[in-house]
Amino acid sequence: MSPPLPAFLLLISIAFTSASVVPLQPGFYAETCPDAELIVKDVMRRNMIKEPRSAASVMRFQFHDCFVNGCDASMLLDDTPNMLGEKLSLSNIDSLRSYEVIDEIKEELERVCPGTVSCADIIIMASRDAVVLSGGPDWEVKLGREDSLTASQEDANNIMPSPRANASLLMDLFERYNLSVKDMVALSGSHSIGQARCFSIVFRLYNQSGSGKPDPTIEPRYKEKLNRLCPLGGDENVTGDLDATPTMFDNRYFKDLVAGRGFLNSDQTLYTFPETRKYVALFSKDQRAFFNAFVEGMIKMGDLQSGRPGEIRSNCRMVNSRPVNALLEA
Ligand code: HEM
Ligand SMILES: *[C@@H]1O[C@H](CO)[C@@H](O)[C@H](O)[C@H]1NC(C)=O
Ligand SMILES: *[C@@H]1O[C@H](CO)[C@@H](O)[C@H](O)[C@H]1NC(C)=O
Ligand SMILES: *[C@@H]1O[C@H](CO)[C@@H](O)[C@H](O)[C@H]1NC(C)=O
Ligand SMILES: *[C@@H]1O[C@H](CO)[C@@H](O)[C@H](O)[C@H]1NC(C)=O
């Protein structure tokens, strides 16, 4: 049993947990950390020179963060003895990467304006920069998010979609976040950059839906190429490009889908289902339409919030130490 708490400790604890849905706005750090956006872009640029794929890997964070209890950097928390974080969840383990880029951004920001810029906002700024620096559209991001105090491996397992997913399942999933079919197809266009593992496609190469046969929608020459990259029983950590121009953010991804050259089942299925096929066809012909829809989708996805109490973490991998709450939980 915990001893009764002095009244002043209870008050402090209430103050700590009062935040809920916070208003987001462009230029949120204009006065408190005017160089924040410049610093984020600079670190992104440096890392992309070192390793071009880091742009894609960081941009993916926005999806995996925002879909699991809102854009609150919960996916950046390391496991603790009391909490299984999201890093080892089904979709993230051996797959999400470039966490150290976020650490580098955070360290620079903490030097310039300590305790000011949230990790959740860093993900949003860095994702935008990854797109711009890869040749994609630019847009103004809304900021002012807070970082979560917890993470949930279980929620990440239950929510994040499998590369086996079909368009029908994906439409239903995105609808739960008020993201339209058009938003979903445009956001899938993020696979215009980056790579995925053989692990994510061997089932469709050798045993689609348990049929013992390959997915019949894969274009034959592309299928040969994938078979060579990912032989049955081979190393499933080997990676392949998600589209034919994996460091350029463009509409090549959609052209590839039209040609039957989608890497993941969840990509190619967008051209199989009539509800999504029309958007794939549109985006494959009209890069501007893709860019506009993509920006709209990223902004909507960035608006997702958990409504739970938050803080500005000083290290994105762990919550700030909190003696009062530790006392309350004892
Ligand atoms: C529509 C449902 C989606 C599914 C089923 C899906 C699934 C996947 C899978 C399975 C991988 C490769 C994982 C691996 O093999 O290690 C991947 C990579 C990636 N995803 Fe998605 N994804 C989806 C939507 C999104 C969205 C909305 C974004 C961002 C806005 C995104 C951004 C990325 C990026 C950039 C990569 C490449 C990362 C890298 O090279 O490190 N994805 N996705
Ligand atoms: C799509 O996937 C879901 C879940 O795996 C499945 O129940 C459904 O039958 C599939 N839909 C079609 C039309 O293939
Ligand atoms: C979706 O929109 C409805 C109606 O505006 C709203 O009540 C609900 O909270 C929204 N859901 C999400 C996840 O934003
Ligand atoms: C294909 O998948 C089904 C169902 O998941 C499984 O029962 C079957 O053994 C698999 N076949 C091969 C050749 O791996
Ligand atoms: C992939 O590599 C990780 C370590 O990076 C290892 O733990 C895992 O077993 C490997 N997975 C496969 C499918 O080979």
Give the H and E element order: HEHHHHEEHHHEHHEHHHHEH
Strand order of the largest sheet: 1-2
The share of residues in extended strands comes to: under 5%
CATH topology grouping of the largest domain: Peroxidase, domain 1
Averaging pLDDT over every residue, what do you get?
A: 93
Uncertain segments: 1-18
Small molecules (ligands, ions, cofactors) in the structure: protoporphyrin IX containing FE, 2-acetamido-2-deoxy-beta-D-glucopyranose
Q: How many strand units?
A: 6
From the alpha carbons, calculate the radius of gyration and give it in angstroms.
Answer: 21 Å
* Shape designation: globular
Q: Into how many domains do the coordinates divide?
A: 2
CATH structural architecture of the largest domain: Orthogonal Bundle
Secondary-structure-based class equals mainly alpha
The CATH C-level name of the largest domain is Mainly Alpha
The amount of helix comes to 40-55%
Sketch the major β-sheet.
2 strands, antiparallel
- What is the count of DSSP helices, taking H or I runs of 4+ residues? 15
Spatial gap, N to C terminus = 8 Å
Verbal overview:
The protein is mostly helical. It folds into 2 domains: 23-161 and 302-329, Orthogonal Bundle (Peroxidase, domain 1), CATH 1.10.520.10; 167-299, Peroxidase, domain 2. The protein has helices at residues 7-16, 36-50, 54-66, 99-112, 119-133, 153-159, 167-175, 181-188, 202-206, 220-229, 252-258, 265-272, 274-285, 287-302, 323-329, and strands spanning 25-26, 142-143, 147-148, 195-197, 239-241, 310-311. The chain has a two-stranded antiparallel ribbon. It has a two-stranded antiparallel ribbon with strand order 3-6. It has a two-stranded antiparallel sheet with strand order 4-5. Helix 2 runs antiparallel to helix 4 (99-112) and helix 3 packs across helix 5. It is globular and about 60 Å long. Mean pLDDT is 93; it is low at 1-18. Bound molecules: protoporphyrin IX containing FE and 2-acetamido-2-deoxy-beta-D-glucopyranose (4 copies). Residues 207, 210, 212 line the site of one 2-acetamido-2-deoxy-beta-D-glucopyranose (NAG).
